[in-house]
């Protein structure tokens, strides 16, 4: 016997309730799957429409990306042609997708981030040694700031890629600091480095990091972003 469940009138145009009847021995129970179609109404216990969680915080739809407008923009901003770097569209998208997005149902960048962060730490250590000629400089504040999440995330922001990153906020009404946006954006840069290392090899990855990210003459280098971070801290 299928029982009807009435919805409050105020929610009728926002919610679709699919009812299914299940029998467990003498007992009867219901499983009601509901989707929230309009973000203006929030009801505890109601699941979002799957379509809604395939959009990033800036409203970009994961399923509607065009390579000429999305992937090619990444390639152009990071000068892939100059460094003879080849990354296919799927890998680029994975690099810009955090595991918090879409409940982890799509490829995300966690392992690429780990690999890239270690390689970036290695190259930044070599850069520091070449600049100071002293092992005492390793682990210094300047050295740490160079690969700090705030520095890496600032590069992503400066390149205008912030609206292109796929992730989910812990609380949509709270600010960037509470939601850990800097950490999320830093994984993008680390992941791109990791992907370049795996697919294009150490030589090209080294050239990319040293000549673009660790070059003070590069407009969007970690060196310049580090200086901006230090100035900002001194002004506080």
Automatic annotation (TrEMBL):
SMART domains: RIBOc (SM00535)
GO cellular component: mitochondrial large ribosomal subunit
CDD domains given in the database record: RIBOc
Residues annotated as transmembrane: none
Gene3D superfamilies for this protein: Ribonuclease III domain
Domain RNase III as annotated: residue spans: 67-201
Record PROSITE patterns: RNASE_3_2
InterPro entries: Ribosomal_mL57 (IPR040030), RNase_III_dom (IPR000999), RNase_III_sf (IPR036389)
GO molecular function terms noted in the UniProt entry: ribonuclease III activity; structural constituent of ribosome
Taxonomy, superkingdom: Eukaryota
SUPFAM superfamilies found in the cross-reference section: RNase III domain-like
Pfam family, one: Ribonucleas_3_3
GO biological process, one term: mitochondrial translation
Protein name: RNase III domain-containing protein
Organism, as annotated: Kazachstania africana (strain ATCC 22294 / BCRC 22015 / CBS 2517 / CECT 1963 / NBRC 1671 / NRRL Y-8276) (Yeast)
